[in-house]
Amino acid sequence: MHADDDPPPEAARLPKGRIARTAQIGGMVTGQGLRWAGMRTANRVRSPERAAEARDERTAKLVGELVDQLGKMRGAAMKVGQLLSMIEFDELPPEQRGELEAKLATLRDDVPPVPFKRLEKLMREELGGPLSSVFSDFDERAFAAASIGQVHRATTLDGEDVVVKVQYPGVAEAVDSDLRSAGLLLPLLKRLAPSLDAKPLLAELRDRIGEELDYELEAQHQRRVERRFRGHPFISVPRVRTDLSTRRVLVSEYVEGERFEAARALDEAQRDRYGEIVFRFFFGLLYRDRIALGDPHPGNYLLRPDRRVAFLDYGLVRDLSAERIDAERAIAHAVRAEDPAALQAALTAGGYLRDADGFDPEIALTMTRGAIRWYAIPGERRLTRERRERRAREIDAQDAELRAAYSDQASRFVLPPETMLIRRMHVLVAVVLSRLRANADWGAIAAEYLHGEPPATELGRAEADFFSR
């Protein structure tokens, strides 16, 4: 990340006040509800083909309005929008699904910063004096911005180059308002994903976002991971300056490196290596250390000059129990062994089954295999967007009876709230590898962490040697 990068355009003033923010969400929900009811009434006299087309159009407009509205609000409202980006819109045609995924991705990737003058007062309060009492130089241009805060470069009085993450003024109050209003979105989420049990997921989101607002807690997460990877041969985690960090200001070492788009322009071998490092970092932390990092999007890592990859942002973190990780391992093992009975047992133990009556283990195995085979089953694969779209077209090409059977089985599944960050990590890592067009035997690499199998690659051997010491 370079100081001379062009800063993104600054955002307009954020909406303030619980009444104003609740009115925005409530107005959107009410308007969409009326339009959805109108569509359903009109569909009674339409042909099945035209009714399906109208439903697709209404879904696309619903998601579009959600993205536009939530993107303006930041805070928890934007986080809810980011949650939507993890939902599979299986009933939409592949082309429309791709467009919606791209639009939802803007809530993760295209966040404009706020003017620095609005942050300066907050920083003075947090640091106990003017910026000059802590920093010899401070770049007022933000080079990264997210839903809760933005990042600036600076130099400390003792001469260290650092990055300073500053929480937006008033965002804590806005988040509190949004979390109180999040229940208003339940009807919309139910329309977008009928089988999704949104209420406990929103409760989990409230817990995680509440923690994400506390930069002192984030600093603890980052310190813990940094200690775990200190001296690692290909993974780097920036050190935190705890002496300069507060609840709303987080200071850590500046890391020189290239952004994700530069990594995408590398040759095939280098892209494959970069992709394997990304995979190993997130899957290793989850299945070896029982730490789920829920924000693995491309803006959170840099390719360093020494070819290590630096991983940033530790706000969205969850520690998981050994029982939860054992259940995830058992699901992957059952899919790899093509064992329907073992899969049903693993899904039950993991709390994924809403209703066992009428559950078809064979169909469940086919569905689960389609979702996780890329990392659960050994075999070399170059992940691409075209590969994902081809799978979606194969599903769409199935006859109506088979699609109905799949839909019936899907309705019997439930997503345990504590697995939300696991699912989010799996999906986002797959998206990143697809954007890199990275090739590897992901199943063999994952088996090191899932099943304790020997290292499958040169990087795996280097990492095993590091952790053995």
UniProtKB/TrEMBL annotation:
It comes from the Bacteria. Transmembrane segments: none annotated. Residues 107-338 form the ABC1 atypical kinase-like domain. It holds the Pfam family ABC1. Keywords: ATP-binding, Kinase, Nucleotide-binding, Transferase. GO terms for molecular function: ATP binding; kinase activity. Belongs to the protein kinase superfamily. ADCK protein kinase family. This is AarF/ABC1/UbiB kinase family protein. The lineage of its organism: Bacteria, Bacillati, Actinomycetota, Thermoleophilia, Solirubrobacterales.
